[in-house]
Amino acid sequence: METNLAEPALIPLVVILGPTGIGKTSLAAEIGPRWDAEVISVDSRQFYRGMDIGTAKPSPAELAQVRHHLIDIAAPDETVGLARFLELARPLIQEIHRRGKLPFLVGGTGQYLRALLQGWQVPHVPPDPELRAELEALAAHAPDALWRRLLALDADAVEFIHPHNLRRIIRALEVSLKTGRPFSELRRRVPSPYRVLQIGLTMERDALYERVDARVEAMIDMGLVAEVRRLLAGGYGWGLPAMSGLGYSQLRPYLAGKCTLAEAVERIKLETHDFIRRQYTWFNGDEIHWLDVTEEPAVAIARLGTDFMSG
Question: Hey, what CATH class is 11-123+196-310 in?
Answer without folding.
Answer: alpha beta
